From TrEMBL:
Entry superkingdom: Eukaryota
Gene3D superfamilies: 2.70.50.70
The name this protein goes by in its record: Endoglucanase
Key words, A-Z: Membrane, Signal, Transmembrane, Transmembrane helix
The species this protein was found in: Neoarthrinium moseri
Length: 290
């Protein structure tokens, strides 16, 4: 309650348009930037990841996860699109960007961010706390220290769209953890599946016509709510799957063109300097002794 009131005050203070509400992550507590826009991820991926945050300012936010502890996900905002499927993933990058890899620690197929909804939406308010909470255990292979978690969500009834909110997390060791080297844990972390991506410019689109996404690679920790069809064959169009993430597609079109132009200029300049050096060398070696 305290958090939602503070948020609401912040939103009004920032003159955020809150009439058209989707949903926000309310726990864990997201970066303040995540409340600036509650719309979906841009269709061209231009605000991927984390709604285009570049600062990732952790000041004043304390989400502390001990390994092996139970944590929960909860969202707010009435535009719940009949629930859907969510994932919780983590990156080790302090300032995630397009190249960052998001490793899944928990997947919820169907009934997320709200379970057993009889209407498509849960009212109109963008700040109403949704009644469903989603417990999950922090895997014992998440590296200790600051990490960033993401909540990603595909609605059951909507246009093809994806939501993503990010939160700073401080991971601590669990009590009486077996003595496993951190390098072994890190290997496990990197073996976890990448988050499922669609509707963010990666060439994969979800259908959202009453179907809930069944993740191709949900990881070891999965909650399944069979309240909507989880039909893998009729849930996506385009090219989808673990290899189709923006991080693996590298540079976006505009960046690629810029990069190629820079490389071309560097080549020309390099060749020119090379010529100069050869000429200078020649003129020096041809100089006759006085
Ligand atoms: Cu929507």
């Amino acid at each position: 309650m305290a958090i939602s009131m503070r948020l609401l005050a912040a939103m009004i203070g920032l003159k955020i348009p809150i009439a058209h509400g989707h949903t926000f992550m309310q726990n864990p507590v997201p970066f303040p930037s995540q409340y600036l826009d509650n719309g979906p991820v841009a269709k061209d991926g231009s605000n991927w990841p984390c709604s285009g945050d570049t600062e990732y300012d952790r000041a004043g936010i304390a989400n502390v996860w001990k390994r092996g502890s139970q944590q929960y996900l909860q969202a707010m905002g009435g535009a719940t699109h009949g629930g859907g499927s969510c994932q919780i993933s983590i990156t080790l990058d302090p300032k995630p960007n397009r190249q960052s890899q998001w490793r899944v620690i928990h997947s919820i197929e169907g009934g997320c961010p709200i379970r057993n909804l009889t209407e498509v939406n849960y009212g109109e308010s963008p700040t109403v706390l949704l009644p469903s909470i989603y417990n999950f255990t922090v895997p014992n292979w998440v590296p200790i220290g600051p990490v960033i978690m993401a909540w990603t969500w595909y609605g059951r009834w909507s246009v093809p769209e994806m939501f993503m909110n990010c939160a700073p997390i401080m991971v601590l060791g669990g009590p009486q953890e077996p003595d496993v080297p951190e390098s072994v844990r890190l290997e496990k972390f990197h073996a976890a599946p990448l988050v499922f991506e669609a509707n963010n410019g990666n060439g994969c689109w979800t259908m959202n016509q009453g179907n809930c996404v069944k993740f191709p690679n949900p990881g070891n920790s999965v909650e399944v709510n069979e309240e909507c069809p989880l039909d893998e064959l009729h849930q996506v169009t385009g090219t989808c799957g673990p290899e189709h993430v923006l991080a693996k597609q590298g540079w976006s079109g505009v960046h690629l063109m810029l990069y190629q132009a820079m490389a071309a200029i560097a080549l020309v300049v390099g060749a020119y300097l090379g010529c100069l050096r050869v000429q200078r060398h020649r003129s020096l070696s041809h100089r006759s002794p006085a």
